[in-house]
């Protein structure tokens, strides 16, 4: 039989787990109670119904090492784009091997946690040994020839000791003891327009923040220098000058769209005290002043008062 785990490795994933297809009852209840951000609403809660042809789900881990300096962008975003493309490669390899496969639109974290493979943390991320929370997860539904050897279920492990460090650095989402208010996580404002002023003042890097995982003592402590291509491409002034195609190649087209990246670059240029952005922002106010009104007002007044 095809070695699925080897195929996943060849596609670029560090690790993968083969799980049975089962409904996610607790997750669905929480979702229906509004516990999660609405962008999880389209996820499938009963994969048996949504993918009746599938007999397994392969969840794959794109692990990454954080940047020494995440003040430009969190290392998660380029990793998530690498994960997306690795899954595309894997689907092609599976199809070439004669295995029907489709990207799984399911709650991967919930699946791994309920299977004992990962541990939930107060910052709402999933801890997977030995990567900590530095992972992007991708999944594929598969129709495998029987019998299927699933990854063995593990004993659930408590990793978070509720030390409160993530709560201290957070904008207001982390409440402790696994309670999380998604309306107070700055990631929420990836979609939002306009960004609330207090969130703008809090924003430290493009596309939200990941302070809650860099501060977590349970995470691996290694870091790497931020690659030059990331530094150059996601420099907020470079984004303002319109290099969104290159940005799309790094973080994915969706995130690089103007309503997300450009909106955030306006705020970040000001928070990073980039005086060289002021002339560009004044020009942008003439062409796109209505769309980015709140962000431009905030950024221009901050830079003018520098
Ligand atoms: S920082 Fe402390 S409370 Fe937060 S996730 Fe890590 S261990 Fe848990
Ligand atoms: S990403 Fe930032 S705002 Fe969101 S939970 Fe983590 S620390 Fe809080």
Can you offer a commentary on this structure?
The model has no long low-confidence stretch (mean pLDDT 91). It contains 15 helices and 8 strands. It has 2 domains: 4-142, no CATH class; 172-208 and 227-304, no CATH class. Strand 7 and strand 8 form a beta hairpin. The protein is α+β, with helices and mostly antiparallel strands and 306 residues long. The chain binds iron/sulfur cluster (SF4) (2 copies). The site of one iron/sulfur cluster (SF4) has 14 residues, from helix 8.
Short recap of the structure:
The chain has 306 residues and is of the alpha+beta class. The protein is built from 15 helices and eight strands.
| Whole-number mean pLDDT | 91
Bound molecules: iron/sulfur cluster
Work out the helicity level: 40-55%
Q: What is the succession of H and E elements?
A: HEHHEHEHEEEHEEHHHHHHHHH
List the helices and strands and how they pair.
Blueprint: H1 4-11, E1 15-19, H2 25-32, H3 47-50, E2 56-63, H4 76-96, E3 101-103, H5 108-114, E4 119-120, E5 126-127, E6 135-142, H6 165-169, E7 174-176, E8 179-180, H7 197-202, H8 211-214, H9 228-233, H10 236-240, H11 244-251, H12 253-256, H13 258-271, H14 278-288, H15 293-304
Helix pairs in contact: 1-4, 13-15, 14-15
List the defining traits of the structure above.
alpha+beta; binds iron/sulfur cluster; four-stranded antiparallel β-sheet; 306 residues
